[in-house]
Amino acid sequence: VQLQASGGGLVQAGDSLRLSCQASEGPLDYVAAAWFRQAPGKEREFVAAINWRGSSRNYASSVKGRFTISRNIDKNAVYLQTNNLKPEDTAIYYCATTLRQRYTDSPADFTLWGQGTLVTVSS
Description:
This protein has 123 residues and is mainly β. Helix content is 0%, strand content 49%. The chain has strands at 3-6, 9-12, 17-23, 32-38, 45-51, 57-59, 67-72, 77-82, 91-98, 112-113, 117-122. The strands form two sheets. Strands 2, 4, 5, 6, 9, 10 and 11 form a seven-stranded mixed beta sheet that branches. The chain is globular.
């Protein structure tokens, strides 16, 4: 199974983007799916996560209230709705999944990764 992230682009501050993460085949099994991002010269950081049931969502404090993670089990896809984008949101966004029952917001806990999609926010 491979993950394909898409939906990135060049936008202005205040705009919105919907990022998608599509599995190459289904069903996509995971305990949790997440989005991470990596800005130039910085480490990869956690953005948001959702469990398979969709009953639990977690967000980084920097995006809480602006970003929303969701998933569609039937479509084997995970999404990240990004609103009110800021220049500091500029990064490559990666989707990832984990089968670990206990996981943290560390990239090391996630084992299946997509290739990333670039989001650039101009001021």
